[in-house]
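[job 4417] fold queue: 2 targets
>>> target A
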Amino acid sequence: SRQLLDQVAEFEKSEFTSSNKKPSSDLAKPKLAPLNEGGSELLNKTVACLQEENEKLKARLKTIETQATAALDEKSKLEKSLKELQVIQGDQKTNENQDITELENKVATLKCQLEKTLNDATENQKFMEEDLVTTKHDLLKVQDQLSTAQKELEKKFQQTAAYRNMKEILTKKNEQIKDLRKKLSK
């Protein structure tokens, strides 16, 4: 499952780097006013929300890992202290054994709690990542449909009589300007 998470992370990095490069080329192209941005805007908001929640889960996971590491460090320190006390106080073995048992029980309980929390966080993160990927695919579909609609609208506009007439007028005017320039240069 770690490999899958790494693959998803690489996919997201490639998506974000490619999406960061696209807007600069999009700014140079003239675009028609969008017909309906409701779906695209909703998808963008959903993606942002999912990314924010994913970051929160990652931060929570790091906090839990830090707590687990601290608990394990504390356990090893306590075990070391306990062993030193056993050497010094050989006649109190029964009390020390009880303390060790209590510590082991506490550590086992902490481990169970940590594993449960990690499993819950991992499942939630997987769900969020799958939802994020689905939302990205939906966003790409909507963007593709919007692009297709814009191209069709532009094509229809170019086929109108008004567009052809304006194009003919511009062509004639350009030729007249060329002729006038030639006459002026002579």
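>>> target B
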Amino acid sequence: MKILMISCHDVWGGLDTFSPMLKILKKMDESGIKVDFVSTEKTADFDESSKMYGEPVKFIGKNIDIERIRIFSPKLLKILYKNSLMKRIIGKIRAEYIFPRLVYSRYKDKRDYDIVYGYEIYAVKVARRLADRFRVPLVTRFQGSFIHSWEAKFGKEYCQKKYKLHYDALKTKADLIIMTNDGTEGDKTLKELKNTENMRFWRNGFDFAPSNETKEELRKKHNIQNDAFYTVSVCRLSKWKKCERIIEAYRYISKSGENIKHIFVGDGEERQSLSELIEKYGLKDYFIFVGSQPHDKVKEFLQLSDIFL
């Protein structure tokens, strides 16, 4: 089997990250599925995720061919992206207009694919076109959707104009639609758009064999207090992940007098604001930040904890 996978999202930070996309591609590689993965070029010169987590991996496995299309010189983008308005405009042009056209022109005559896979909104339209051209099934995948919350805040009519690309992507019919259950109520959005016939509403998760080390041994290994009760979260510390909800919950949990703490596994642009919120509520003793961790270490933090949030 051979799959054409199209995405503006990428695999940042190396092969030991817990990126869902990395897990998908590694599983395909291990299963002997050949994949042409095509995305946009990203370097630390201009790409925020590459600066924060490390540039995207260049090799995943022998069955995964990776092409990242250059859309403007990285040096030029570095200069232009210093202006926030210019960054938004050029980012939109690159992802929404140029990338789909270049993908279509480069891949329209290859015709040796069994499936076309469109990962997130910028890839869906061109994936649909190519799947129709090749007469093969289409898979679309979304990491959630903000449409439901946007409509509640700004109104449906305004959102349908401003976020037209999102609506068009989510309305696109596919042989399999994977919507991540990440708390943004993407399933409700698909229901409202009458596009649930082939939908799967799945959580991201971890498939791992437990360590031979005991919970007590793992806590000692990571200098974690042994006699406390631990909750743990594993995610990028981004605004849309709503990690502040955990802190708000701990405002009430702390009143119980129980020895309970939370471990944040992951890093991101909200790290500082979360720390400030913890400081504001006087909850420093209840939270532990361990930053981004290799996949094997993520397993250990899951195993040494009592509840995964």
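[job 4417] complete. Note on B: The chain has 13 helices and eleven strands.
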